[in-house]
């Protein structure tokens, strides 16, 4: 889908919950138009903030266990984890400035 590394049901705990850095997870699907609009924004933010926060993308078509466990009910959904804890979760398309504000608050 994008230049953002993928996270899967099998490696979610290791890459997200055990990460020493904050982690942003972008839950997406290939049929989701707002997801496709959000992808370039997430990629830009990964370039700008990648040294301070890990950006990962989860294809919800291929991975259903974690989205279910994390309560993902609609797409796109963005979740931010710090120290293995969910600190932010929101659904739907967001502007780059709205996402920057969230990242600034978390960092």
Note the overall shape.
globular
Q: What is the third-level CATH name, the topology?
A: Glutaredoxin
Main beta-sheet strand count, sense and barrel state: 4 strands, mixed
In terms of quaternary structure, what is this? single chain
Instruction: Enumerate how many helices there are, as a single number.
Output: 4
Helical percentage? 25-40%
Count structural domains: 1
> Into which percentage range does the β-strand content fall?
15-25%
The CATH class name reads: Alpha Beta
Give a written overview of the molecule.
A four-stranded mixed sheet has the order 2-1-3-4. By secondary structure, the chain is of the alpha+beta class. The model has no long low-confidence stretch (mean pLDDT 96). Helices cover 36% and strands 23% of the residues. It has one domain (12-106): 3-Layer(aba) Sandwich (Glutaredoxin), CATH 3.40.30.10.
């Amino acid at each position: 889908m994008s230049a953002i590394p993928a996270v899967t049901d099998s490696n979610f705990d290791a890459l997200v919950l055990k990460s020493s850095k904050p982690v942003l997870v972008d839950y997406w699907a290939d049929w989701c138009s707002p997801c496709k609009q959000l992808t370039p924004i997430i990629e830009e933010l990964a370039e700008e903030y990648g040294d301070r926060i890990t950006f990962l993308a989860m294809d919800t078509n291929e991975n259903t266990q974690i989205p279910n466990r994390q309560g993902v009910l609609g797409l796109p959904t963005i979740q931010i984890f710090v120290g293995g804890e969910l600190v932010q979760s929101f659904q739907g398309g967001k502007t780059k400035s709205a996402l920057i504000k969230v990242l600034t608050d978390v960092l």
